[in-house]
Amino acid sequence: MSRKFLLAAAIAFAPFTVQQVHSQEIGYRLGWIYAQYLSCDPSDPGGYCSTSVDADGVNVWQSPNGPITSALVNGVPVVIVEQQGSWVRVNALCQLYNTGVWSDTAGVPLFGANCGSN
Question: Is the pLDDT at 100 greater than 90, yes or no?
Answer without folding.
Answer: yes
